[in-house]
Structure formats: structure tokens, C-alpha cells
Amino acid sequence: MRGVLFDSELESLLRDDLHHLDLTTVYMGVESERGVARLVSRSRGVLAGVEEAADVYEKAGATVGYLLGSGSEVSSGAVVLEAEGRASSLHAAWRVAQALVSYMSGVATYTRLMVEAARRVNPRVVVATTRQTPPGLRRLWLKAVLAGGGVVHRQSLSDEILLFRNHLVFAGGRGLGEVVRSLKARVGYKRVGVEVGSLEEALEAVEAGADYVQFDHVDPATLRSWVSRLRSEFSGVSIGVGGGVDLENVGEYAATGVDVIVTSAPYHAKPLSFTTIMERRP
């Protein structure tokens, strides 16, 4: 994977931490000393954000000679990145670089665990994350999801048509089926998806031509029977579920036979632990 941050964003991250100058390095008089910085994992997990960390070091004036790519599995003590340069460059970059890898690897690791738990009971199910990322961090968090083996449900509102209850508020009294038929007549080749809260809503949506229905906050036992009913009548429809799905219950939801499990849980994952160790070079 390549880094997803633009030069201006890298500069902003560095400026946020460095501000005016690194007082400690300046007053020690060691700015020009040469050294190497190694980013080391303190725990087991799945890497993400290493390419962005490398870009941060390069932007600060260091040279990255080694890195493990996003998606790699690491254990405690593994060196995941090595950068060489002036002490001023290494100290300007290391905290920002380490934080990026720590947070993004936490998301990637949680995603991998969810995917593995879901596919143990339903090998074809997809774990897809929402667009409910922390503001300003969407590209980074979505990359971390991909590194963990998940997929992106929607990157933005422009990706596809997904009808929610709050859309129907503005439908001028038209029912769900009528709105779905209207959308299908206008959007051409694009799929139409609908979030539903009951079997009746799902049947109405699919009968009107919806390509995808996504159940919201339905317990696994109820969902299993609804999926079975839909499959028996509409074999071609895609079925998803979202709302409250996390690592603890993803296996139960996967066992219902849905095609897609939609979740935001990885975005709240605990960061993976890393440390940065520096060494002077003559």
C-alpha cells in the first residue's frame, strides 16, 4: 500500500508537534549529529500506517531504509521501520510517525479479528466499515480497515444510493416502495440499497426493486429467520446488517447468513503499542 497523506497534510502534522523548534535538541547542540530511529512493536497485531510514518520521516529530512508494509502481522519486538538522518530530523518525526502507526494498527488489528471471527462460521461474509470515522481521519482509518482485511461500506455519500428512514421524512408522503421504484427508474445501472428495521419493510423494498437491504439493530435470532424468508423468495438480493455489531457478537451475526456485516467498532479499537529507539551513528 502507498501512503494516503498529501504533502500539505504531512507538513501540518509535523508543524503541530514541532511548532517553532525542538528546544531540547537545539539547546543540547546535537541537531547535526547523525543517527538511526527504529520503530519497534511492543505487542502482537496487524500493521497499518507504516507508509505514512515513512513519509513523515522523509518530509522531516530523514531517509527510510526499511519498513514492513501495512497488512503485515507483527509480534512484540519486531522492527517495523528504520529511518536514518540528522538528530533534528529524527526527533521532529518520531512521535508523529509512531502515533500514526499505533492508532492505525489498532484499527487494522481489530478489523482482522472481526473478519476472522465472522468467517469461521460464514466463509463468504464481508465485514464492512461505515463512514463514521473520526472527523478528518477517514482516509487513514479506511486504509487501516483494508490492511486488516475488511472492506469499506461507503467512503462517502457519493459512493452509492442507500435509503434511510430520515430520507423518507422528506418524501412528501410517499411510501417506501414508491420511493424505491422512483429511484430505480432514475439511477440507471447504480444499485439501490435500503436500511430496514423489519421483515415487512425489507419485503416491501425488495418487491419494489431494491438490490440490497440492510437490517438495523436486529438481534441475531430474529435476523436468521428474516434472512431465510428473504432468501426463499428473492435469491438475488444482497442482505446486510448493522448496528451494535462488534468483536463479541460478530460470529453470531455472521451465522445468520447475511452477505455483509456493517460496523464502526474497529474505529474505537485500542491503539497497538509501539516504541521508538534511537542510536547515534558516527
TrEMBL record:
InterPro entries: Aldolase_TIM, ModD, NadC/ModD, Nicotinate_pribotase-like_C, Quinolinate_PRibosylTase_N_sf, Quinolinate_PRibosylTrfase_C, Quinolinate_PRibosylTrfase_N. GO terms for biological process: NAD+ biosynthetic process; quinolinate catabolic process. SUPFAM superfamilies: Nicotinate/Quinolinate PRTase C-terminal domain-like, Nicotinate/Quinolinate PRTase N-terminal domain-like. GO terms for cellular component: cytoplasm. Its EC number is 2.4.2.19. Pathway: Cofactor biosynthesis; NAD(+) biosynthesis; nicotinate D-ribonucleotide from quinolinate: step 1/1. NCBIfam families: modD. This is Nicotinate-nucleotide pyrophosphorylase [carboxylating].
